[in-house]
Design a protein that fits this description.
single chain; alpha/beta; Aspartate Aminotransferase, domain 1; Aspartate Aminotransferase, domain 2; three-stranded antiparallel beta sheet; disordered C terminus
């Protein structure tokens, strides 16, 4: 009797996460055979020698004796109060502990939110490029991902006219990632005000991923959207992983603001789903209050002379001296998003290039099409390595691009 194969769910057909996908698996194969790979595909602070601030670690250690049991599904009260206080300080005064949820990273909270919000066929408006977890979670929870463009020609800002035109009868929410991953764009107040007005007019939720809220450069102002939204229902997401360099702690949070009457059912649904997964990582929740109330540890890294500032400058210099690359200067987050110029290599495939860069030069990065951009000429690399390492990365990128310009059209695809 033949053995019947176990098929995976059809819901996964349109779910992609190439940041840890085919290229990353190929890199692991190469490393198993002795290669030394430069990993620039993911914003993992710990991989590059960053450590969570000592006062966060000390807080966890001091409370381990209180962390053996489950916490309340929304989080420990000390952490919830600190998150609420942060939102109040930003002018979002209708946030309360009952409207605040701590999760195992923002990733879990995104999934919970879309599960609570969507019926089959509901639409979510997402930026393109997007952080692909938002698209994946939309699809996995029965929704339809609809994209508004944030192109380099517009400094990776949302196309507001297109965004307005995409709103239909099944649209439930607008997602904003600000500061943006992968582009490094930071949205100005006037853009956010117009998006708030659209959401208000059409009765939509605002889902605002602000995990990089304090990661801005050169005096760029970050404007949180919830203070502008007023009574417009809004969920704001943040956490410890990026600003506080604590990716492995897996602590994120979201706060619900806007009309309590309109959001009461959603709040209850979020609490139900939070209860079903019991609670977030209890020991690491003790780091939330010292993170939000303690000293600024990210500012020195972003200021001139700081490591992230210098790494960003190395990326800017690498693009400026390249014969093949162009890039909108990243204003925030921890990524560079250069593009290969069409006048230099008209026939360019970002996935094929990324594979060649990995196999020829031992550099792993994420192709731009990983972020739901069709026919992308972009590449995303993290700014977390030491500046000298980033300079070497751009030398290796340039070597591959130089070789490509000497080939006949189509050779790259054939060689892959």
């Amino acid at each position: 009797m033949p053995v019947k194969p176990i098929h995976s769910s059809s819901r996964l057909v349109d779910v992609h996460y190439e940041i840890r996908g085919t290229l990353a698996r190929r890199a692991r194969e190469m490393e198993a055979n002795g290669a030394s790979i430069m990993h620039l595909n993911i914003g993992d602070t710990g991989r590059f020698g960053f450590r969570a601030p000592a006062h966060l670690v000390e807080a966890i250690q001091a409370h381990l004796g209180e962390s053996d049991g489950y916490a309340r599904e929304q989080g420990i009260r000390e952490a919830l109060d600190a998150i609420v206080a942060r939102q109040h300080a930003r002018g979002v005064c209708d946030v309360t502990p009952e409207r605040t949820f701590i999760g195992n990273g923002v990733s879990e909270l995104i999934d919970i939110t879309l599960r609570a919000l969507l019926d089959p066929g509901d639409e979510v408006l997402l930026p393109s490029p997007d952080y692909p977890l938002w698209s994946a979670a939309t699809v996995l929870n029965g929704g339809r991902a609809t994209y508004y463009q944030c192109t380099a020609d517009n400094d990776h800002q949302p196309d507001l006219d297109e965004l307005q035109s995409l709103i239909g009868p099944r649209t439930r929410a607008i997602v904003l990632v600000n500061p943006n991953n992968p582009t490094g764009a930071v949205y100005p107040r006037k853009v956010l005000e117009k998006i708030v007005a659209m959401a208000d007019h059409h009765g939509l939720m605002l889902l605002c991923d602000e995990i990089y809220d304090e990661l801005v450069y050169d005096g760029t102002e970050f404007q949180p959207i919830a203070p502008l939204a007023g009574q417009v229902p809004c969920l704001t997401f943040s956490g410890l992983s990026k600003v506080h360099r604590a990716c492995g702690f897996r602590i994120g949070w979201m706060t619900l603001s806007g009309s309590t009457a309109r959001t009461a059912g959603l709040r209850d649904a979020l609490q139900l789903l939070a209860a079903l997964r019991l609670c977030a990582n209890v020991p690491a929740q003790w780091a939330v209050r010292p993170a939000l109330e303690g000293p600024d540890t990210i500012g020195p890294l972003l200021a001139p002379g700081g490591r992230l500032h210098s790494a960003r400058q190395a990326a800017l210099d690498g693009v400026a001296t390249s014969a093949h690359l162009e890039m909108v200067k990243p204003r925030g987050a921890m990524y560079a998003y250069p593009a290969v110029r069409a006048d230099r290599i008209p026939e360019f495939d970002d996935n094929t290039f990324a594979l060649r860069l990995l196999e020829d030069e031992s550099v792993l990065l994420a192709p731009g099409s990983s972020f739901n951009v069709p026919q992308s000429r972009h590449l995303r690399l993290t700014l977390l390595p030491e500046p000298d390492q980033l300079r070497e990365v751009f030398v290796r990128i340039e070597r591959v691009l130089d070789r490509m310009t000497g080939e006949t059209p189509g050779t790259l695809r054939a060689s892959a």
